[in-house]
Amino acid sequence: MKRKQLNIVMIMGLALFATFFGAGNLIFPPYLGRNVGSSWMTGFIGFFIMDVGLATMGVLAVVMNQKGSIDGVVDKIGHIPGVICVTAIILCIGPGLCIPRTAATTYELGVKTMIPSMNHWVFGAVFFAIVLALTIRPNKVVDIVGKFLTPVLLAVMVIMIVKGIVAPIGHPVHIGGEVPLKEGMLSGYQTMDGIGGMLMTLMLITAAKGYGYTDKKSVSSLIAKAGIVSGVLLMLVYGGLTFLGATTSGNSAFAGLEEAPLLVAITNRLMGGAGVGILAVIVFLACLTTAIGLTSVAGNYFEELSGGRLKYSHLVVAMTIFSYLFSNVGLTKIISISAPILQIMYPTVLVLVLMSFFEKVIKDRMTTGFAAYTALVYEILALAASMGAPFGFVNSLPLSKFGLGWILPALIGGVVGSFFHGKHYAETIAELDSASGKKQYRKPASDDEMKKNKREAV
After folding, report:
1. What whole-number distance in Å separates Cα of residue 354 and Cα of residue 199?
2. Beta-carbon neighbour count of residue 160 at 10 Å?
3. 208-239 pLDDT tens trace
4. What is the set of domains in the chain, with CATH numbers?
5. Which of 412, 352, 449 minimizes the C-alpha distance to 81?
6. What is the per-residue pLDDT across 416-437, written as a single tens digit (0 to 9) for each?
7. What is the dihedral of CA 105, 107, 112, 115, to 10 degrees?
8. Which has more confidence, 229 or 264?
9. Is 131 in contact with 291 (CB distance < 8 Å)?
10. Distance separating alpha carbons of residues 65 and 73, to the nearest angstrom
11. 40 near 31, Cβ under 8 Å?
């Protein structure tokens, strides 16, 4: 039984790794490494925190909170706002941005370099036909990705990274003018892994049930261990890619290249003509596994949200078609659209995820809610300021130069929210638990009970 569980954890962990390791994960770490040079390790730490760290915490937050679900993480800002938050994230990392980006990246980094005459509309049709074929059966998604696609992806990545370590392009040099930690964090934003970490549990929960695990404790244990396996693999691969980029920092031939062309140039320098083919395989597998995982997650979520009225298979078909059409906008355009959305949403999600680990200590939802909403307001003002609005004061807050200016407002919001404890009872019923002697909270059973409770709270 222990060997069986270990195999399942490894398969789930590999599937989770492959789902996270997609389009942005290939192009951003080398670009980061080149831009920060000899400070690549500091930059990588920032990248790791805002990408792998938050993604893994998101997975753990879902399985460790008292409800053992995504609702347990986001309901602290209110049920309807929580649903809106999750829906927005699903659309952001799904058909709206990340899934189309996988096809765009595969075309620009792989197909375009090997078959320049290939039309991007034709390639996109083939790519998404494969995604649809491998996603239409939700119980098989983790097996397909974890057992078959990920091992090949890892093997090819190891070859490339080891080659870059044994015979580096050059030595990392000092680059002035950049804040490595901030650059790493901003690059971590762009991958979208952190913001979608808690949503990937939907795919893993479906897989765990398919393996015969149904009780909350067993499912939570499997997913938590899979999250750790995924985190370790991502750390090793991301670190290797960041180092490869850093080895080009002193070479003028690589200066000024954008994310995708830089990765192509590094691969060609390290592996010659064969590197083009190897890069094409890496890109295809990485992006395919991510597209499969995200499509499955989105399909599961919207089917559950609709109470089964929207069928998984219908949703997957619709999202695949939409993603295909949107992917032809182009990689650069998709990235430019994703940046402001992620800037606004990341801090709110981060606050909710972090507070999930302290819900036994901070039981009042108003504290978490105020902190999350304050972080959201700060990021909206910061984005407006970057576009010329008169909100420049947000850039003078502590840690703002590291992209963490929202921390102080969130802390203040949490303190303010703690003074509104009485309002908490308008949305929950406090009952004395006979076994522990402590208060337990539940949602009102009806609208009448909600109204009565609000009157009493006021």
Report:
1. 15
2. 21
3. 888 888 777 888 888 889 988 998 999 999 99
4. 2-339 (1.20.1740.10), 422-457 (no CATH)
5. 352
6. 988 875 444 445 544 444 445 5
7. 150
8. 229
9. yes
10. 7
11. no
